[in-house]
Amino acid sequence: MTNSTGTRSTRRAAIYCRISQDRGGAGLGVTRQEEDCRALCARMGWDVVAVYTDNDVSAYSGAVRRAWQELLAAVSRGEVDAIAVWHVDRLTRSPRELEDVIDLADRRGVELATVSGEIDLATPTGRMVARMLGAAARHEAEHKAERQKRQRRQAAEAGRIAGGGTRPYGYEEDRLTIRESEAEMIREGVRRVLANESLSSICRDWRERKIVGPAGQPWKPGGLRRLFASARISGRREHTPRSSWETTRPLLGEIVADAVWPEIISHEDSDRVRKVLSDPTRRRNVEGSTKRSYLLSGVLRCGKPKADGKPCGWGMSGRPRSGVPRYVCPNTPGTDACAGTATNAERTDDHVRDMVLAALESPTFMERLREQDTASTDLYDDVRADEQVLEELARDMGERRISRKEWMIARQPIEERLERNRARLAKVSRVAVLSGFVGTFEDMQARWQRMNSSQRRAIITACVRSIEVRPADPRKRWDPDRFVFDWVA
User: Fold this and answer.
1) Quick check: 24 pLDDT over 70?
2) What is the Cα–Cα distance from 51 to 179, expressed in whole angstroms?
3) How many Cβ atoms from other residues are within 10 Å of residue 487's Cβ?
4) Second label for 308, Cα 20 to 30 Å away, from 65, 146, 205, 481?
């Protein structure tokens, strides 16, 4: 750069430093880069006006590099006309971004110098060298990512501990020893999820009881969802590969081995809760919502006859009128809902509660529930047997005893059967939520009063599939006979 007198002026240089992984958190790598770049600027006769540092940020991953964006903005404002880096791959490992740097050099006359060797972006030869180095860096980054992915899978298949990060809830710092106080909370939480209680409800309860996560923070529904869905708590190793374009880790990974640490919950309960929490139709309550919670929304079904004589069957939802909470068949355009049935919410809730408690007081009803629950053991045996068959098929293909085509043909019906049985397994266990609740009618009434809406709903859905609400008799202020229960047992 020359000034008005024709003599060369001193360039205003910015140093850019980046390191992809700083496991110790000390920033030593970028510190060494800065020292070398300052020496380079001194040799070039440049004045260092700013240092931009991205520590522990990979250029290959696509993560936002804030310091790099700030540097580009400074160049665009004309505050910087030279950049010093340790190596061209510290700028970027993306050929596309390198072209942006070359374009910037063209438009702004920015010089680029590297500690590892001079690169002049103003000449075709310099640009060719930069592109070759950038392509080589990209190639190495992709191979490194592939090696790391394979190493993580091998560690998972061996059931080894995954290092790094905060200790897992339920285990001590060694990640092997169960911390019993936390393990008991995990078992309680899993039971409550399987009983159809919402994660928001569990979070509210745990906050009141001062139960916090490993970092000392209150639990949130998203954190509990990942905790309960993790195969770790069942003593199994899970592998969750993630592509570079994915911004969040999938909830469920592939269970690849039994782990070296002990289980907190059984494999059976883990499979059930994973299925429940990954169900896209699962109702999610919004934490902190101020809307009134309607206990029987979706449980009540409109029983008003249609033109063909069959009941409407549409799920009723909560809608107040003149401030009085009601359940109604909704008037929703584009649906088959008839909008012709309504019932007072408070009186309906009380009636359904009394009917459910009366049924639970019956030894015959409870025995039928237990008989249904025993079916879960047979289902779980079927699931484990099919999983073992899939493993044997994969081993046969790996050892070339069968072809890939034979493996795919044999696998399809097994996987379809597994999906059906896992879905059934997630729904059949109903006695668990009722244990500790069932007693005399008066005892159950007292326990009911202490429950929140989500816990009450779990009790109801453990006993009732749905409740048909038939049209009201205009001669009666309240008609309990219009409610037809479809009992589970």
Assistant:
1) no
2) 46
3) 15
4) 481
